[in-house]
Amino acid sequence: MAAVLTPFLESDIHLSPPRAGQAVRPSSSVVSLLEERLPFTVRVVSNEQQLAKAVSIRHAAYARHLPDFAESLKRPERSDFSDDSVILLAESRLDGSPLGTMRIQTNRHEPLPLEQSVDLPGWLQNGGVLAEAVRLGVTEGVQGLLVKTVLFKAFFQFCERFGIDWMVIAGRSPLDRQYRRLMFRDVYPDLGPVPLRHAGNIPHRVMCFEVGTARTLPNAEQHSFYDFLFRTHHPDIELEAPALQTISAFMPIPVAGAVGRTSATPLQ
């Protein structure tokens, strides 16, 4: 199903109020030129059916590359219900099938998942509120690339609206090159990829992006992602939803028993 482009004058994306203690940044006055309808939706997981779909696509994505590690991802994780976590789910508008997922975890109350394996430099630790994209998984093929791109737009919108200063991602080769094209930079430029024990000790390139600089970077408007991010309104990105934590008490799906946070392994 092809995306549909229609004229659109001004962005009208509304988010639910942040949780206690979260500061909302003022909305930008950027004018959108187009409204683009997608063949799928991206929503915040807020019920058991959506969580089951997120878990299924998460497991399938990891199973293609790390089948042994994927066995631990057949069930929801404790971090799925954390006050610091929001799970995004991409679903087909045609049949509701899951196409992709990402969990966003902030350091408002706990360290980021990757901090179980590495110490972040002082300039980043003291740089404000951080959010890490973890458990990223999408369907295979060309559609999966579009889904991942939209998930990253939703990640950015979440961070920009809810007072997140830095986006953090850990990517294994060759996927790390995709994040470099999205203007993420190395946290450890002289160190290279570092093993993350909660991702099977596979070396990952730890990268970051300062949210507030997105529109002011040199030649930002010439970047291939700029129009998609700032000049196109995607009504199929719906970030309004109750917290998943409110339904955790009666979730029928057993929660994986691993204690604490787990690090990201972006897989296709």
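Second entry:
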Amino acid sequence: MTIGALEAAMNAQHDHHHHHPETFDVHGMLLFGDGPLYFSHLPMFEHPAHRFQVLMEVGFRDDVLEVLRAHRKDGDIQTFVPERFDILELDPSGGGPARTSVAGTVFQGHFERGGTPIAEDVTARIERVSRFTRLDPGPRHDDDRALTYLCFGRAGGLHLAHEITARPDFDQVLSVRIVPGTVRHDPGVLVPGDVPATNFPAPVPATFGRADTPARRLVAGDTLEGAFSPGVTRTGPHGFTARVEVLGEIYMETGDLV
């Protein structure tokens, strides 16, 4: 038995979980990042199984990582097509996701739009599920709300994922950086060293002074001030503002979210 087949067999142990028929399906993922790697579930309002925005850190064997890096190209994406599983197994609300790995195939390009398999029968370790939100197909999108993203990653590898709320909406992932010297705590105190802006292990909401529409989305080359809201702790609120430079657009989709 090959290593890939052995991993797939081990992963198949998850099939003993109780499945919910409405959420048991092939859940395609955008694969991006480099230290760590991330999956972003490719959501669809039209299908109950895919009405979820999910972000997670993942890992692969070293030989698989070498293949992924060798195929990285500017302007192209990589996607992951797992075996069928119940996406509710990724929900961390019960103290941690029930599923810790998933077997599948990595594609160069979009797997439904001419992508090419580059790593088959591989297993992705699920290191952390940092965002798991069920999408409601009923409400209509409020175009007047502030353009809102979820910021996550580490220094030198920060990302923004557009926060999906209501249809019609858009799914977008960006590569960004915080402009040095621009981080200010509310009400405007400069933070030496930009300490709070360098690492976001969990997604932090960031709003920008634009309407929340595809036409007004952030694009490569934009530099705009964002208001970050990490939340409230025992020591009080920790909101801050910072200028964000968009280095590149990794993924953009509207058709699946009408």
